Amino acid sequence: MRCRSHICLVHDVSIDAALPALDPLLRPSDVYLLASPDHEPQARWLESILRPEGITVHLKLLRDPWNVAAVRDQVLTILMGRGPNDVGLNLSGAFGPVGIGAYEAFRGAQRPMFYVHPQRNSLVWVYPEEGERTPLTGRISLVDFLRAHGATIQENPVDLAMPRGLRALTRELIGGVERMAKPMASLNWFAYHVDGDRCTLPLDSGYQKWGDLQGLIDRFASFNLVERYGDRLRFPDEGARRYVNGGWLEDHVFTQLESFQGESSLVQEMARGLEYVRLNDATAIKNELDVAFLARNRLHIIECKAKRFQCTLNPDAPGADALYKLDGVRQQLGGKDARVLLVSYQPLLDSHRQRAADMGIRLCVGREIHYINELIREWVGTDETG
């Protein structure tokens, strides 16, 4: 069923309020966004992706969002003079009194109602009842998805074309994770602490005599990514420094994701090194996503870490901070239906693993990176699974 107008109830950020309107088979000519004054920003974000699609948007602030009767009456005024199937109610993301009031108005008037099934990316009809779900065929872009959640992409994703030799190097590093994890943590630390000329702090005699670390430096140096400069290391440019400082792991993960995308239609768009800005209490907060992609119109975030989380003075804090940050980014950019995967070259403490499990954050650690391709397949699912 295609309705000329949609009413969407805006509460917390939810892309489900816009997905049916963006679907080519369901697209209405106009959309009414009903929101409380406190949620006007979220409604404006949704408006910013609907208007460019040629959809007329009417933003209606609810006079009393906690009063069921007041919400019902305000919705009924929109239905006045409209035909039986002219207006459909999108119940996705509705909360308490607003959802009840809107439902009562539409149910009493026997008008169409539906919601989006987030796992199956399909429309479920509440009235009139239908036996089967209606698949959503629209595919939102990553830029619009982030814009709908109040974020603006600052730069284009980085160029992903890496020399064949570097891809071989990343496979070598992952193959030797048990032996190379400790020297990689030290090299990562030095690559992070550099001066204006991209020179590291001095490597003392212990580091200079550490065979595994020196061998690791030699491997990166063979690709002109780093050079010895007295008792220091120097990086030829910022790109090389970032690659040594964990970019190689991002590159490997993204390569495996590219492989999966070539075999599955589920991954609709992906990016690496995605920088964005999001307003937080009128303050612009900059952040970066190592790897991000959309599948079934749901955001998937992969954070790649080559550094060691353990700390002698407080062994739990660094890893916990990373997990809390990931959880916060998920809530801001995708809500409860977004998925997060942390790929760590270094081992994690049991407390880190428990926190990740409590937060619903998937982990891929150490030797498990060997099987990241299979993990991504299972994580995203197949065309038949939800």
What does this structure look like?
The chain has 386 residues and is an alpha/beta fold. It folds into three domains: 5-138, Rossmann fold; 164-242, Arc Repressor Mutant, subunit A, CATH 1.10.10.680; 249-380, Trna Endonuclease, Chain: A, domain 1. It has 13 helices and 15 strands. It is elongated. The model is unreliable at 311-317 (pLDDT under 50).
Compact summary:
This protein is of the alpha/beta class and 386 residues long.
Task: Give the SSE layout.
Blueprint: E1 5-10, H1 19-22, E2 30-35, H2 40-50, E3 56-61, H3 68-79, E4 87-90, H4 96-109, E5 113-117, E6 122-127, E7 134-135, H5 142-148, E8 151-153, H6 164-175, H7 177-192, H8 205-208, H9 211-221, E9 227-229, E10 232-234, H10 238-263, E11 267-280, E12 283-295, E13 298-305, H11 317-333, E14 339-344, H12 350-359, E15 362-365, H13 372-380
